[in-house]
UniProtKB/TrEMBL annotation:
The keyword Transcription applies. Signal peptide: none annotated. This is Transcriptional regulator EutR. It comes from Devosia equisanguinis. Residues 204-305 form the HTH araC/xylS-type domain.
Amino acid sequence: MRTLPSFSINAFADASEQERGLLGWDQRYTQMGAGRFEGTVVRMELGRVSIWEERLNVSVAETTAPPAGKVVLVLPAPAVDSRINGAKREGPGFLHMGGHEINVVTSETTQGYFVTLDEKDLPGLDRRRTGPLCSIEAYPGAHEMSSWIASMMSMAPEGMRRSPREFGTVLPDFIVDRVSDLCTFLSSMDHKPLTESYAHAVVRKARKVIEAKSHGPLSVAELARAIDLPEHVVRSAFIQAVGISPLIWLRRHRLDQARRAMLRPEEARKGVAQIAMENGFFHLGRFAAYYTQTFHELPIETIRSVIG
């Protein structure tokens, strides 16, 4: 018995909300760009296949991993510039194997499609050849795949309304066949391993230290000492891998922590001053300025939106 297809649209007003938008994924989003966050996740569920479309209006740093046992065809929209594991994205898309974590820094405006299938439905896939990440650039027609998926998403609501059973039967089989052909083609080739850059390795180590720090602010000098590298090497690595200095990254991380606290009712009742100080901001005027510049609202406005 086949499940009837479904189509849903969810809007999000904060990066910490949208990180839960792709169900079953292990994700953490931190807003990097300035602006009032607006994001959407559109989901088309076809039983054997799920297709997600995600949009973001500001730059976001993501740590993301699909569910184990899944294979995801990731198709960024044309002209979307982002960094994946510290390297600027090139090509029309890539395969992302379930359970494998990557780090992404998106551009200011981002749109992408995620075609998710069970690995068992792709017998021609050889992960020894493709590795956990594999560019689809060599596949004939790779540059048209994003528009192919976009057209299916645009016709889905009407197709489901008119003939849901046929739509839910024919389309998933067609998508599985197409992606299976892609996987078989890529598995027949030798690929240059998508290894991480030295800059990304440095940033990855630094982020573990930053995220493990539970009290008080961390300076760039302290961060460099914690990972046993000179400060100038750490600065250079951050700029190469994520496009901003470690000083700004540290501040954005603390702003993200403060905002997450303000969005939780039990934490929001502490008030702006206590939350700011708990996250290493001891000059409240400066904290309010940084916060407003990043999120385009005052800290007190965030708290009032949660507890009134």
